[in-house]
Amino acid sequence: MGQFLSSCSKPARRILPHKTEGDIADSSSDLAQPQTPLDGLPVLKKAKGHYWYPSDGPRILDACGGAGVACLGHGRRDITKAITTQMEAYAYASYAHFKTAPVDELSDWLIKSTGGKMQKVYLMCSGSEAIEAALKLTIEYFLWKGQPARTNFISRHDSYHGTTLGSLSVSGHFARREPFRPFLNQAHFHHIPACNPYRQQQQNHHHPPTNADAAAKEYLALKTAELEAAFARLGPHTVAAVVLEPLVGAALGCVPAVPGYLAAVKAICARHGALLIFDEVMCGMGRTGSLHAWQSEEEDAVVVAPDLQAVAKGFAGGYQPASALLVGEKVVRVMEEERKKREEEEGPWGGGGKGFTFTHGHTYQNHPVVAAAALAVQRAVEREGLLGNVRVQGQLLGRLLKERLGAHPHVGDVRGKGLFWGVEFVKDKVTKEPFEPGLGVAERVQKVAVRGFRVLVYHGQGCAGGGRGDHIMIMPAYTISGRLVAEIVDRVAGAVEEVFRGL
Ligand SMILES: Cc1ncc(COP(=O)(O)O)c(C=O)c1O
Protein backbone atom coordinates (compact mmCIF):
# COMPACT_ATOMS: atom_id res chain seq x y z
CA MET A 1 0.00 0.00 0.00
CA GLY A 2 3.05 2.19 -0.16
CA GLN A 3 2.80 3.63 3.33
CA PHE A 4 5.81 4.23 5.54
CA LEU A 5 6.22 4.08 9.26
CA SER A 6 6.54 7.49 10.83
CA SER A 7 9.69 7.99 12.85
CA CYS A 8 7.56 9.94 15.32
CA SER A 9 5.00 7.26 15.91
CA LYS A 10 7.32 4.27 16.00
CA PRO A 11 10.78 3.79 17.44
CA ALA A 12 13.40 3.58 14.72
CA ARG A 13 15.01 0.39 15.97
CA ARG A 14 14.59 -1.61 12.77
CA ILE A 15 15.96 1.02 10.43
CA LEU A 16 18.81 2.62 12.31
CA PRO A 17 22.24 1.97 10.84
CA HIS A 18 23.85 1.63 14.27
CA LYS A 19 21.69 -1.40 15.13
CA THR A 20 22.99 -4.84 14.27
CA GLU A 21 21.05 -8.01 13.61
CA GLY A 22 22.29 -9.19 17.00
CA ASP A 23 20.46 -6.33 18.67
CA ILE A 24 17.14 -7.73 17.57
CA ALA A 25 16.83 -10.29 20.30
CA ASP A 26 14.51 -13.26 20.74
CA SER A 27 14.01 -14.40 17.19
CA SER A 28 11.32 -16.82 18.34
CA SER A 29 9.03 -13.92 19.16
CA ASP A 30 6.94 -12.38 16.43
CA LEU A 31 7.79 -9.01 18.00
CA ALA A 32 11.39 -9.43 16.88
CA GLN A 33 10.77 -10.47 13.28
CA PRO A 34 11.78 -7.89 10.71
CA GLN A 35 8.56 -6.42 9.40
CA THR A 36 7.76 -4.35 6.41
CA PRO A 37 6.20 -1.03 7.35
CA LEU A 38 2.69 -1.31 8.77
CA ASP A 39 2.72 -5.11 8.78
CA GLY A 40 0.63 -6.44 11.61
CA LEU A 41 -1.25 -3.22 12.33
CA PRO A 42 -5.01 -3.59 12.62
CA VAL A 43 -7.10 -1.96 9.91
CA LEU A 44 -9.32 0.68 11.44
CA LYS A 45 -13.04 0.70 10.71
CA LYS A 46 -14.24 3.47 13.01
CA ALA A 47 -13.52 5.30 16.24
CA LYS A 48 -16.08 6.51 18.75
CA GLY A 49 -15.72 7.97 22.21
CA HIS A 50 -12.85 6.22 23.99
CA TYR A 51 -12.65 3.27 21.61
CA TRP A 52 -11.03 2.28 18.33
CA TYR A 53 -12.98 -0.29 16.29
CA PRO A 54 -10.74 -2.41 14.02
CA SER A 55 -12.26 -4.21 11.03
CA ASP A 56 -11.73 -7.49 12.82
CA GLY A 57 -11.42 -8.24 16.50
CA PRO A 58 -12.92 -6.54 19.52
CA ARG A 59 -12.77 -2.79 20.16
CA ILE A 60 -9.61 -1.24 21.64
CA LEU A 61 -9.73 1.11 24.62
CA ASP A 62 -7.86 4.29 23.68
CA ALA A 63 -5.44 5.26 26.46
CA CYS A 64 -3.23 7.56 24.40
CA GLY A 65 -5.25 9.28 21.64
CA GLY A 66 -2.60 8.37 19.07
CA ALA A 67 0.39 10.49 20.07
CA GLY A 68 -1.51 12.38 22.76
CA VAL A 69 -3.74 14.01 20.17
CA ALA A 70 -7.38 12.93 20.58
CA CYS A 71 -8.15 15.07 23.63
CA LEU A 72 -11.93 14.98 23.12
CA GLY A 73 -12.20 11.34 22.14
CA HIS A 74 -13.44 10.18 18.78
CA GLY A 75 -16.43 10.81 16.57
CA ARG A 76 -17.77 14.00 18.14
CA ARG A 77 -20.64 15.19 15.98
CA ASP A 78 -20.40 18.79 17.22
CA ILE A 79 -16.81 19.01 15.97
CA THR A 80 -17.42 17.37 12.61
CA LYS A 81 -20.45 19.65 12.18
CA ALA A 82 -18.31 22.75 12.77
CA ILE A 83 -15.85 21.44 10.19
CA THR A 84 -18.43 20.64 7.52
CA THR A 85 -20.23 23.95 8.07
CA GLN A 86 -16.96 25.76 7.42
CA MET A 87 -16.21 23.60 4.37
CA GLU A 88 -19.60 24.37 2.90
CA ALA A 89 -18.95 28.12 3.27
CA TYR A 90 -15.40 27.89 1.88
CA ALA A 91 -12.86 25.12 2.33
CA TYR A 92 -9.76 27.13 1.58
CA ALA A 93 -8.61 30.72 1.31
CA SER A 94 -5.02 31.91 1.02
CA TYR A 95 -3.86 33.92 4.00
CA ALA A 96 -2.27 36.30 1.50
CA HIS A 97 -5.66 37.18 -0.05
CA PHE A 98 -8.26 37.09 2.73
CA LYS A 99 -8.81 37.44 6.42
CA THR A 100 -11.23 34.77 7.64
CA ALA A 101 -13.58 34.68 10.60
CA PRO A 102 -12.51 31.32 12.06
CA VAL A 103 -8.84 32.30 12.04
CA ASP A 104 -9.58 35.71 13.59
CA GLU A 105 -11.85 34.21 16.22
CA LEU A 106 -9.40 31.45 17.10
CA SER A 107 -6.50 33.89 17.34
CA ASP A 108 -8.45 36.23 19.61
CA TRP A 109 -9.53 33.32 21.78
CA LEU A 110 -5.95 31.99 22.07
CA ILE A 111 -4.49 35.39 22.92
CA LYS A 112 -7.14 35.87 25.60
CA SER A 113 -6.36 32.42 27.00
CA THR A 114 -2.81 33.58 27.75
CA GLY A 115 -4.01 36.66 29.64
CA GLY A 116 -2.52 38.74 26.84
CA LYS A 117 1.01 37.43 27.44
CA MET A 118 0.96 36.18 23.87
CA GLN A 119 -0.21 38.68 21.28
CA LYS A 120 0.02 37.10 17.84
CA VAL A 121 -0.92 33.69 16.52
CA TYR A 122 0.58 31.95 13.57
CA LEU A 123 -1.65 29.02 12.57
CA MET A 124 -0.12 25.97 10.84
CA CYS A 125 -0.62 22.22 10.54
CA SER A 126 2.10 20.39 12.50
CA GLY A 127 4.27 20.68 15.56
CA SER A 128 7.45 20.63 13.46
CA GLU A 129 6.20 23.60 11.46
CA ALA A 130 5.45 25.52 14.65
CA ILE A 131 8.94 24.87 16.03
CA GLU A 132 10.57 25.68 12.70
CA ALA A 133 8.64 28.97 12.67
CA ALA A 134 9.74 29.71 16.25
CA LEU A 135 13.39 29.25 15.28
CA LYS A 136 13.11 31.44 12.19
CA LEU A 137 11.14 34.13 13.98
CA THR A 138 13.82 34.24 16.69
CA ILE A 139 16.52 34.72 14.06
CA GLU A 140 14.56 37.49 12.36
CA TYR A 141 13.70 39.15 15.69
CA PHE A 142 17.36 39.56 16.54
CA LEU A 143 18.19 40.86 13.07
CA TRP A 144 15.54 43.53 13.52
CA LYS A 145 16.71 44.27 17.01
CA GLY A 146 20.17 44.94 15.59
CA GLN A 147 21.75 41.95 17.36
CA PRO A 148 22.80 39.73 14.43
CA ALA A 149 25.40 37.96 16.58
CA ARG A 150 22.62 36.10 18.40
CA THR A 151 22.70 32.94 16.32
CA ASN A 152 22.95 30.16 18.91
CA PHE A 153 20.12 28.04 20.29
CA ILE A 154 20.38 26.02 23.48
CA SER A 155 18.13 23.01 23.97
CA ARG A 156 18.48 19.73 25.84
CA HIS A 157 19.58 16.16 25.33
CA ASP A 158 16.86 13.54 24.97
CA SER A 159 14.36 16.04 23.62
CA TYR A 160 12.16 15.95 20.55
CA HIS A 161 11.01 19.09 18.80
CA GLY A 162 10.19 17.91 15.30
CA THR A 163 11.12 16.08 12.17
CA THR A 164 12.29 18.81 9.76
CA LEU A 165 16.00 19.57 9.61
CA GLY A 166 15.72 22.75 11.72
CA SER A 167 13.43 21.28 14.36
CA LEU A 168 15.50 18.07 14.40
CA SER A 169 18.68 20.12 14.83
CA VAL A 170 17.23 21.64 17.97
CA SER A 171 16.08 18.18 19.15
CA GLY A 172 18.36 16.07 21.29
CA HIS A 173 16.76 12.70 20.57
CA PHE A 174 19.60 10.33 19.79
CA ALA A 175 17.82 7.78 17.60
CA ARG A 176 15.83 10.27 15.55
CA ARG A 177 18.93 12.40 14.88
CA GLU A 178 21.29 9.53 14.14
CA PRO A 179 20.66 8.87 10.41
CA PHE A 180 20.65 12.60 9.62
CA ARG A 181 23.50 13.70 11.87
CA PRO A 182 25.76 15.06 9.08
CA PHE A 183 22.89 17.19 7.80
CA LEU A 184 21.90 18.68 11.13
CA ASN A 185 23.11 22.14 12.04
CA GLN A 186 25.65 21.61 14.78
CA ALA A 187 27.16 25.08 14.52
CA HIS A 188 24.15 26.90 15.93
CA PHE A 189 22.30 24.26 17.96
CA HIS A 190 23.73 23.19 21.31
CA HIS A 191 22.44 20.69 23.82
CA ILE A 192 22.72 20.57 27.59
CA PRO A 193 21.48 17.79 29.91
CA ALA A 194 17.72 17.44 30.33
CA CYS A 195 15.95 18.08 33.62
CA ASN A 196 15.29 14.47 34.56
CA PRO A 197 15.48 13.95 38.32
CA TYR A 198 14.78 10.20 38.21
CA ARG A 199 17.95 9.61 36.23
CA GLN A 200 20.10 12.49 37.46
CA GLN A 201 19.23 13.51 40.98
CA GLN A 202 20.55 10.44 42.81
CA GLN A 203 23.99 10.64 41.24
CA ASN A 204 24.25 14.33 41.88
CA HIS A 205 23.32 14.94 45.47
CA HIS A 206 24.99 13.97 48.66
CA HIS A 207 21.97 14.00 50.92
CA PRO A 208 20.08 11.02 52.32
CA PRO A 209 16.48 10.75 51.04
CA THR A 210 15.21 12.25 54.32
CA ASN A 211 16.67 15.60 53.38
CA ALA A 212 14.63 15.94 50.22
CA ASP A 213 14.54 19.75 50.31
CA ALA A 214 18.31 20.08 50.36
CA ALA A 215 18.62 17.50 47.57
CA ALA A 216 16.04 19.34 45.45
CA LYS A 217 17.84 22.65 45.96
CA GLU A 218 21.15 21.11 45.03
CA TYR A 219 19.66 19.53 41.92
CA LEU A 220 18.10 22.82 40.82
CA ALA A 221 21.46 24.54 41.34
CA LEU A 222 23.12 21.90 39.16
CA LYS A 223 20.55 22.43 36.37
CA THR A 224 20.94 26.20 36.39
CA ALA A 225 24.74 25.90 36.49
CA GLU A 226 24.61 23.71 33.36
CA LEU A 227 22.61 26.35 31.53
CA GLU A 228 24.78 29.22 32.76
CA ALA A 229 27.86 27.28 31.63
CA ALA A 230 26.38 26.89 28.13
CA PHE A 231 25.73 30.65 27.92
CA ALA A 232 29.26 31.35 29.14
CA ARG A 233 30.84 28.88 26.70
CA LEU A 234 28.97 30.25 23.68
CA GLY A 235 29.22 33.88 24.78
CA PRO A 236 25.98 35.22 26.29
CA HIS A 237 25.63 37.86 23.55
CA THR A 238 25.51 35.07 20.89
CA VAL A 239 22.59 33.12 22.41
CA ALA A 240 19.29 33.71 20.65
CA ALA A 241 17.02 31.38 22.61
CA VAL A 242 16.59 28.45 24.94
CA VAL A 243 14.10 25.85 23.66
CA LEU A 244 12.44 23.32 25.93
CA GLU A 245 9.33 21.33 26.73
CA PRO A 246 7.99 22.35 30.17
CA LEU A 247 6.97 18.71 30.63
CA VAL A 248 8.91 16.38 28.39
CA GLY A 249 6.60 14.12 26.41
CA ALA A 250 7.60 11.38 24.01
CA ALA A 251 11.37 11.81 24.33
CA LEU A 252 11.50 11.08 28.07
CA GLY A 253 8.01 9.77 28.85
CA CYS A 254 6.11 12.56 30.67
CA VAL A 255 8.81 14.10 32.84
CA PRO A 256 7.71 17.35 34.54
CA ALA A 257 10.30 20.05 35.23
CA VAL A 258 11.30 20.19 38.89
CA PRO A 259 9.80 23.12 40.87
CA GLY A 260 11.73 26.30 40.22
CA TYR A 261 13.39 25.09 37.03
CA LEU A 262 11.29 27.00 34.48
CA ALA A 263 11.50 30.21 36.50
CA ALA A 264 15.28 29.82 36.81
CA VAL A 265 15.67 29.23 33.06
CA LYS A 266 13.53 32.26 32.31
CA ALA A 267 15.58 34.42 34.66
CA ILE A 268 18.82 33.31 33.00
CA CYS A 269 17.42 34.03 29.53
CA ALA A 270 16.18 37.45 30.63
CA ARG A 271 19.50 38.33 32.22
CA HIS A 272 21.38 37.50 29.03
CA GLY A 273 18.82 38.97 26.62
CA ALA A 274 17.87 35.62 25.02
CA LEU A 275 14.32 34.46 24.23
CA LEU A 276 12.60 31.54 25.94
CA ILE A 277 10.72 29.16 23.64
CA PHE A 278 8.33 26.59 25.09
CA ASP A 279 7.47 23.55 23.00
CA GLU A 280 3.97 22.73 24.24
CA VAL A 281 3.17 20.63 21.18
CA MET A 282 2.47 17.59 23.33
CA CYS A 283 2.10 18.85 26.90
CA GLY A 284 0.01 21.92 26.07
CA MET A 285 -3.65 22.72 25.33
CA GLY A 286 -4.97 21.20 28.53
CA ARG A 287 -3.06 17.92 28.67
CA THR A 288 -1.52 18.65 32.08
CA GLY A 289 -4.61 20.24 33.63
CA SER A 290 -4.11 23.90 32.69
CA LEU A 291 -4.75 25.18 29.17
CA HIS A 292 -1.09 26.10 28.74
CA ALA A 293 1.44 24.02 30.63
CA TRP A 294 3.07 27.21 31.94
CA GLN A 295 -0.22 28.24 33.62
CA SER A 296 -0.06 25.61 36.32
CA GLU A 297 -3.19 25.52 38.46
CA GLU A 298 -1.29 24.28 41.48
CA GLU A 299 -1.22 26.45 44.54
CA ASP A 300 1.84 28.67 44.75
CA ALA A 301 2.91 27.72 41.25
CA VAL A 302 4.93 30.43 39.60
CA VAL A 303 3.56 31.30 36.19
CA VAL A 304 6.40 31.33 33.71
CA ALA A 305 5.26 32.65 30.37
CA PRO A 306 7.62 32.09 27.45
CA ASP A 307 8.41 34.54 24.64
CA LEU A 308 7.34 32.05 21.97
CA GLN A 309 5.14 28.99 22.38
CA ALA A 310 4.35 26.13 20.01
CA VAL A 311 1.11 24.18 20.39
CA ALA A 312 -0.33 21.30 18.35
CA LYS A 313 -1.75 17.83 19.16
CA GLY A 314 -4.60 18.67 21.60
CA PHE A 315 -5.17 21.98 19.82
CA ALA A 316 -7.67 20.46 17.38
CA GLY A 317 -7.74 17.02 19.01
CA GLY A 318 -6.93 15.27 15.71
CA TYR A 319 -10.08 16.50 13.99
CA GLN A 320 -7.79 18.52 11.72
CA PRO A 321 -3.99 18.79 11.57
CA ALA A 322 -3.50 21.97 13.57
CA SER A 323 -0.61 23.75 15.23
CA ALA A 324 0.19 27.31 16.18
CA LEU A 325 3.03 29.53 17.15
CA LEU A 326 2.04 32.01 19.84
CA VAL A 327 4.17 35.12 19.86
CA GLY A 328 4.81 37.05 23.06
CA GLU A 329 4.44 40.73 23.68
CA LYS A 330 8.19 41.52 23.62
CA VAL A 331 8.71 39.99 20.18
CA VAL A 332 5.56 41.56 18.74
CA ARG A 333 6.64 45.00 19.93
CA VAL A 334 9.97 44.83 18.10
CA MET A 335 8.31 43.52 14.95
CA GLU A 336 5.68 46.26 14.99
CA GLU A 337 8.37 48.91 15.41
CA GLU A 338 10.30 47.42 12.52
CA ARG A 339 7.20 47.39 10.35
CA LYS A 340 6.47 51.05 11.10
CA LYS A 341 10.06 51.99 10.37
CA ARG A 342 9.94 50.23 7.01
CA GLU A 343 6.64 51.79 6.10
CA GLU A 344 8.01 55.24 6.90
CA GLU A 345 11.08 54.56 4.80
CA GLU A 346 9.50 52.61 1.93
CA GLY A 347 5.82 53.45 1.94
CA PRO A 348 2.88 51.29 3.05
CA TRP A 349 4.12 48.14 1.29
CA GLY A 350 7.57 48.27 2.83
CA GLY A 351 8.70 45.08 4.52
CA GLY A 352 6.03 42.91 2.98
CA GLY A 353 3.01 45.07 3.65
CA LYS A 354 0.45 45.21 6.43
CA GLY A 355 0.53 43.63 9.86
CA PHE A 356 2.99 41.09 10.94
CA THR A 357 6.25 41.18 9.03
CA PHE A 358 7.74 37.74 9.56
CA THR A 359 9.50 36.44 6.43
CA HIS A 360 7.87 33.04 6.51
CA GLY A 361 4.81 31.40 5.05
CA HIS A 362 3.06 28.12 4.26
CA THR A 363 0.40 27.49 1.63
CA TYR A 364 -1.86 26.01 4.32
CA GLN A 365 -1.10 28.62 6.95
CA ASN A 366 -4.25 30.09 8.55
CA HIS A 367 -6.36 27.34 6.99
CA PRO A 368 -10.02 28.14 7.73
CA VAL A 369 -11.11 24.53 8.24
CA VAL A 370 -8.20 23.86 10.58
CA ALA A 371 -9.16 27.00 12.51
CA ALA A 372 -12.84 25.99 12.65
CA ALA A 373 -11.88 22.57 14.04
CA ALA A 374 -9.48 23.97 16.65
CA LEU A 375 -12.01 26.57 17.72
CA ALA A 376 -14.77 23.96 18.09
CA VAL A 377 -12.49 21.66 20.12
CA GLN A 378 -11.30 24.44 22.39
CA ARG A 379 -14.81 25.78 22.92
CA ALA A 380 -15.95 22.25 23.87
CA VAL A 381 -13.07 21.87 26.36
CA GLU A 382 -14.06 25.22 27.87
CA ARG A 383 -17.85 24.68 27.82
CA GLU A 384 -17.65 21.22 29.35
CA GLY A 385 -15.16 22.23 32.05
CA LEU A 386 -12.79 19.49 30.91
CA LEU A 387 -9.63 20.94 32.42
CA GLY A 388 -11.12 20.24 35.83
CA ASN A 389 -11.73 16.65 34.75
CA VAL A 390 -8.13 16.39 33.52
CA ARG A 391 -6.91 17.39 36.98
CA VAL A 392 -9.27 15.08 38.89
CA GLN A 393 -8.87 12.02 36.67
CA GLY A 394 -5.15 12.76 36.28
CA GLN A 395 -4.65 12.45 40.02
CA LEU A 396 -6.55 9.18 40.01
CA LEU A 397 -4.56 7.89 37.03
CA GLY A 398 -1.23 8.73 38.68
CA ARG A 399 -2.25 7.18 41.98
CA LEU A 400 -3.56 3.95 40.43
CA LEU A 401 -0.53 3.57 38.18
CA LYS A 402 1.78 3.95 41.15
CA GLU A 403 -0.29 1.53 43.25
CA ARG A 404 -0.47 -1.14 40.55
CA LEU A 405 2.97 -0.79 38.96
CA GLY A 406 5.19 1.21 41.33
CA ALA A 407 6.52 -1.88 43.12
CA HIS A 408 7.04 -3.97 39.98
CA PRO A 409 10.70 -5.05 39.78
CA HIS A 410 11.04 -3.69 36.24
CA VAL A 411 9.16 -0.43 36.69
CA GLY A 412 11.75 2.19 37.52
CA ASP A 413 9.55 5.26 37.65
CA VAL A 414 5.94 6.41 37.27
CA ARG A 415 5.70 10.18 36.67
CA GLY A 416 3.49 12.77 35.05
CA LYS A 417 0.80 15.35 35.57
CA GLY A 418 -2.80 15.75 34.47
CA LEU A 419 -3.68 13.10 31.89
CA PHE A 420 -0.02 12.79 30.88
CA TRP A 421 1.67 9.85 32.61
CA GLY A 422 4.78 7.84 31.79
CA VAL A 423 6.02 4.49 33.05
CA GLU A 424 9.74 3.81 32.64
CA PHE A 425 11.02 0.24 32.54
CA VAL A 426 14.42 -0.82 33.85
CA LYS A 427 16.41 -4.01 33.93
CA ASP A 428 17.56 -3.27 37.46
CA LYS A 429 15.47 -1.15 39.80
CA VAL A 430 18.39 -0.27 42.07
CA THR A 431 21.00 0.70 39.49
CA LYS A 432 18.31 1.95 37.02
CA GLU A 433 20.14 0.13 34.24
CA PRO A 434 17.92 0.17 31.15
CA PHE A 435 17.15 -2.85 28.99
CA GLU A 436 19.13 -3.48 25.82
CA PRO A 437 17.48 -1.36 23.10
CA GLY A 438 17.27 -4.37 20.77
CA LEU A 439 14.86 -6.09 23.15
CA GLY A 440 12.29 -3.42 22.32
CA VAL A 441 10.70 -3.72 25.76
CA ALA A 442 8.37 -0.72 25.43
CA GLU A 443 7.26 -1.89 22.02
CA ARG A 444 6.53 -5.33 23.42
CA VAL A 445 4.39 -3.81 26.15
CA GLN A 446 2.53 -1.74 23.58
CA LYS A 447 1.90 -4.77 21.38
CA VAL A 448 0.87 -7.09 24.20
CA ALA A 449 -1.39 -4.33 25.56
CA VAL A 450 -3.20 -3.91 22.27
CA ARG A 451 -3.30 -7.56 21.21
CA GLY A 452 -3.91 -9.21 24.55
CA PHE A 453 -5.59 -6.52 26.64
CA ARG A 454 -7.25 -4.37 23.98
CA VAL A 455 -5.83 -1.09 25.28
CA LEU A 456 -3.72 1.32 23.23
CA VAL A 457 -0.73 3.03 24.86
CA TYR A 458 2.09 5.05 23.30
CA HIS A 459 5.61 3.66 23.55
CA GLY A 460 9.03 5.20 23.22
CA GLN A 461 12.73 4.55 23.58
CA GLY A 462 15.58 6.81 24.66
CA CYS A 463 14.53 8.01 28.13
CA ALA A 464 17.81 6.81 29.67
CA GLY A 465 19.91 8.71 27.12
CA GLY A 466 21.93 7.65 24.09
CA GLY A 467 18.98 5.79 22.59
CA ARG A 468 18.61 3.56 25.67
CA GLY A 469 15.64 3.29 28.01
CA ASP A 470 12.03 2.21 27.47
CA HIS A 471 8.81 3.89 28.44
CA ILE A 472 5.10 3.92 27.72
CA MET A 473 2.77 6.88 27.95
CA ILE A 474 -0.86 6.98 29.08
CA MET A 475 -2.73 10.03 27.72
CA PRO A 476 -6.50 9.41 27.56
CA ALA A 477 -9.05 11.94 26.36
CA TYR A 478 -10.04 14.76 28.71
CA THR A 479 -13.56 13.31 28.86
CA ILE A 480 -12.38 10.09 30.54
CA SER A 481 -14.32 8.82 33.58
CA GLY A 482 -12.92 7.39 36.79
CA ARG A 483 -14.28 3.97 35.85
CA LEU A 484 -12.38 3.99 32.56
CA VAL A 485 -9.20 5.31 34.21
CA ALA A 486 -9.33 2.27 36.53
CA GLU A 487 -9.94 -0.01 33.56
CA ILE A 488 -6.99 1.48 31.64
CA VAL A 489 -4.67 0.92 34.60
CA ASP A 490 -5.92 -2.63 35.05
CA ARG A 491 -5.36 -3.53 31.41
CA VAL A 492 -1.98 -1.78 31.16
CA ALA A 493 -0.76 -3.43 34.35
CA GLY A 494 -1.89 -6.80 32.97
CA ALA A 495 0.16 -6.23 29.82
CA VAL A 496 3.25 -5.12 31.75
CA GLU A 497 3.07 -8.13 34.04
CA GLU A 498 2.65 -10.49 31.09
CA VAL A 499 5.61 -9.05 29.14
CA PHE A 500 7.99 -9.34 32.07
CA ARG A 501 6.82 -12.87 32.92
CA GLY A 502 7.93 -13.83 29.43
CA LEU A 503 11.28 -12.00 29.34
C1 LIG B 1 7.21 17.99 21.92
C2 LIG B 1 7.04 17.84 20.45
N1 LIG B 1 7.45 18.82 19.64
C3 LIG B 1 7.31 18.74 18.30
C4 LIG B 1 6.76 17.62 17.72
C5 LIG B 1 6.60 17.55 16.23
O1 LIG B 1 5.25 17.61 15.92
P1 LIG B 1 4.69 17.00 14.53
O2 LIG B 1 4.90 15.53 14.60
O3 LIG B 1 3.26 17.40 14.53
O4 LIG B 1 5.45 17.65 13.44
C6 LIG B 1 6.33 16.56 18.53
C7 LIG B 1 5.76 15.35 17.92
O5 LIG B 1 5.60 14.34 18.52
C8 LIG B 1 6.47 16.68 19.92
O6 LIG B 1 6.08 15.71 20.74
TrEMBL record:
Organism superkingdom: Eukaryota
Q: Where is the composition biased (Polar residues)?
A: 26-36
Query: PANTHER family of this UniProt entry?
Result: AMINOTRANSFERASE, AMINOTRANSFERASE CLASS-III
Cellular component GO terms, alphabetical: cytosol
Q: Which organism is it from?
A: Chaetomidium leptoderma
The alphabetized UniProt keywords are: Pyridoxal phosphate
* Residue span of region Disordered: 19-38
Protein family per UniProt: Belongs to the class-III pyridoxal-phosphate-dependent aminotransferase family.
- Which InterPro entries does this UniProt record tie to the protein? Aminotrans_3 (IPR005814), PyrdxlP-dep_Trfase (IPR015424), PyrdxlP-dep_Trfase_major (IPR015421), PyrdxlP-dep_Trfase_small (IPR015422)
Protein name, entry field: Aminotransferase
Gene Ontology MF terms: pyridoxal phosphate binding; transaminase activity
